[in-house]
Each structure stands twice: as structure tokens, then as C-alpha cells.
Fold:
Amino acid sequence: MPVFGTRKWVRGAAALGGAVMVLLAAAPGEAAPGARSALQQEVDAVRASGVVGVGAEVLTPQGDVTARAGTATAGTGRAMPADGRFRIGSATKTFTAAVVLQLVGEGRLSLDDTVEKWLPGVVRGNGNDGRAITVRQLLQHTSHVPDVAPLVPALNTAEGYAAGRYRAYTPEQLVALAMTQPRVPGDGWTYSNTNYTLAAMVIGKVTGRSWAQEVTDRIIRPLGLRDTSAPGAFPYVTGPHADAYATFNGTSVPTDVTVLDPSMAVGSGALISSTHDLARFYTALLGGRLLAPAQLAEMTSTVPAPDLQVDYGLGLGRIPLSCGGSYYAHPGELLGYHTWGGVTADGTRSAVVYATSDGGPDTQAAMSDLVDRELCGVR
Structure:
């Protein structure tokens, strides 16, 4: 199963359906009743695709709208929490890329620096060579370093999860594990979580501080993202949250995977956040509050990513909108928590949805449809 967010980022038709439990709220700001009703229908469609719980938020100049459906714990009537926190998986990569680009803007490193310059001898063996890989290639997923995620037992089987959910990893251990595998053949785009573990290590070398400290001090605190944290090796989601459920190897019995040491996803998938915070982050990022124009242009300059059927920049994908144009996003997944969020190119409208289980074959389409419709303003 994909673990940090590697599903194809394509839209698909999803029929609107009912939900076991429905909650709707308008956030501060006046949003039209039609906007609230439309979002609720879209959330219901995600719930009807087979997930346990769903939450969504849309942030626009006219106000914020939120909607929830399903339950926070399977088999109970416990309501999905308002501003519930969840593991955002690969949406973390956008935060990591933003920190690297801030350092580029400060003149402290270059996107054309080799990995070897900052991490000498770290990327070596089995055809992998940090002397031939740049920081840009890490952020762009064009380095062809092997992905460490399939090698982490807790992410791949129910037995591995039970045995390894509390195991802590250092970034160095993760990269060393990845280096036991051969370089991925080819010259184009290929997704690897190891890229962003390496990017986190580069951040540490450049600043003398940890990735978590830099993300916190450069993004989380300045934007006032109160629900967002870099938990290190702490295995629990604190504050209001729903439980997460994963099905391993196509099994029909879900496993409660809420407890997980996220250190195996440092830089690539470890952050915890909420729909509200993610919507604000995306709006601030594309609105130019985090990066200078030159660095934002680098982030949004893309190459084809055939595996995802989109174009990919530096920690962001560019995805076509059904109404014309495109939006920027980075869906995420980390054991049972799935998120899909996006923002218009001008940063004025963002939408984020998350689900607390793997769902069914229509779940990803229903989530991407929600974001597409909300960013298009379809009513």
C-alpha cells in the first residue's frame, strides 16, 4: 500500500451519497448557505466511499466553511472532532521544501549544490552517488534514490506495525537502509520518500538545527498554526483527533494504527496538522507570505510526473482544474490518515479534506473531486 502519499493524483467522478452521521459548521466569516450545503454533500460522498470519518475545510475571501461526517472511532457514535488533528503524510514535503527554499533565498545554499557537498559519503553504494545528485533533484523527485518506505516493517504489514509502531529511527538510519537498495533506473521523475529525509538532513547541516526546529520556527509559529507540530519520535496524536485505520495487503479487517512513532517519516511525512491549519498554510505559501517571488517561482516550476499523472515542482504538484487552469497541492497518507488539499495559483482559495481510513476504490476520487469543485467554486 502507498504510505506517504503516492497514489495517482487524478480526478474521478464520485456519486453523492449519505453518511452515518453529519455535522456542519461555519467558521468565522460569512459564507453563503449554498457553499455550506455543497461542501457537506462532497464530504458525504467521501464518507459514502467507505471511510470511517471525514473532515473538510474551505478557506475563501468570503469566509471559512467546514463539514464533517462519519465517526471518530469505528463502531461508535463519537462525533468527528472540530479542528481534529491528523498525520498529514506527504503533505509534509511542502513544508520541507519551503524551508529549503527559504535557505536558498537567504543565500545559505543553492538548489544546484550536490548532496555530497552537505552530506559527504551519505549517498553511496549500489549505484547511488550523492556527487551526481543536487538539492533540486531531491525536492523534485528526480534523484532516483531508492524509497525507504517499503523497507520499514511498521508501514507495510499488520504484524510489522504491531512489532514496530514504537520504533524510533534517525534520518541517518533511514538513508543507510535505503542505500542497501539499487539506484532506481531511468532518468525521469520517480517518487522516493528518501529524497525528503535527505532534504531534512541538508537543512540540519546548513542551519546546525534540526528539521523539526526549523519547520517550527520558520513556518508553524510565524503562521500561528496551533494544531500543527513536528512530533519527533512521540507516537501519539495529542489534542482533538479521530482514530486512524489501515488495511494491510488488501485484508478486509482494519487495524487501528493511531499510535505510531513518526520518526521513520522525518522530512517526508511526519507532521501533524488540521484542515484549518493546512488551508492557512497553503494560502500563505501561494500568497507569497513564506517565500520570495524567485523561490516561489522555483517551487511552482514543474516537470512531468507520469506516475501521478500531474506535473511536479519542488514539494508541490500542479493539478488541472475541471473549470480550467490548475491548482497546487500535495496529497498525503500515513497509515490510515489520508489528506487531499489544494490552493489556487493566486493563493486566494484553499480546500483541504482528510479521511481516517483507507476507504474503497472511489475514496481518492471523491476526495480529489471535493477539492476540485471547491477550488472551482462549483455550486
Observations:
- The first strand starts at residue 22 and ends at 26.
- Confidence is low (pLDDT under 50) at residues 11-30.
- The CA atoms of residues 118 and 341 lie 32 Å apart.
